[in-house]
Protein: CHK kinase-like domain-containing protein
Organism: Bracon brevicornis
Amino acid sequence: MSSEIITQQDTKLIAETICGPEATVLSFDLKPYSEDPLGLMSAHRRLRIQVRSKNKKDQTTEISCFVKALPLDCAPQLDYIKESTVFEKETAFYSKIAPVLLDSYSGPAWCPRCYIARDGMLCFEDLSVQGFGMRGKLFNGVSVKSAIRAIASFHASSICAEVRLGRSVTEVQPDFFYELLFVKNKKIHEWFKSGVQVAVAVAERMGLDSSRLPEAFEIAYKAVGPSKTKVNVINHGDLWANNMLFDDQDNCRLVDFQLFRYCPPGLDLAVLLYLCAPSVLRRTKEKELLRYYYDHLVEYVGGERSRLPSFEEICQGYEERKIVGCITAVLYFPQALMNLTTTRDLLTSFETFDDYVIGDRRDIVLESMQKDRPYGERVEDVVKEFVEMSFKLDQIPQPC
């Protein structure tokens, strides 16, 4: 397996990058990173490289890396990933866009270091060696603020890059800012339609009026693009719990840049708060958290303030795109929060992969909601809020 994904030349490049040009690779191995499915859009592995440096002839060093690759052993999953082009998009982010954002940027780190980015494979520093890990599917207030700081730094790097370049990042790299989640010409739209079916089924089982949900879902397609009147930044686009890693000092790194967009920062904030924050925290501390984000954005941008949006603009952009955060949660929660054993069984079977991802998953979700009430309650909570929103569409500010 190692020779299919990682070559000896790859390990030499990584070793020399980390340990210096005189480093010698003694051996390496590549193994599955976890038994649990960490993501739908790639296979995850841990690369270990045994290295000897010239000035330490009798001492070996082990380098640990995190590798994302195409899942060659699951044909339905591989076909789905290739058709979606998510791997190509993330490869472009790390090879073309991140270097532009990080050039001369002095704010806090917001992503892992990427050693290799090529078709079919991405190799990163292994953040777990530095004490980073996931914090579960529901963040507490401390973790929410930690994530907000990382997002503010990411957005600040986008603002600073555009000030430095004198033009937008979409002009510098125009080929990669296409939408991948809310599109109707790819197989992902089948996933979307199945998610709508699930939301309607959950609402009806709760005795709620689901008649306006299909119309409300359509708003997402209009709200994820660039604004003509507000400051746009590169958005992560996929801020659910597994895509943020934390250490014990509450530093946060963002990972999985497969769905990045160019739009107002409020969209990332809405997605984060709906996917990861307790609903009570979001509802009672929303303005406070937006202010927390803005204060750190100002700090990280530093003197490059010619493109800095006002706090009022941040709040307005958030209100305009808040419904997209709710829509994303309604679509994600039934799958992302499902019991890991059930998810593993469904994703690793040729027979069930398509059914689970793009087929009719209403029975699977409703049955799981009955068996796992904490899971069911989170799904019900966000569906209920979305139903309420669907009857107030004329009161929601239109993205502009």
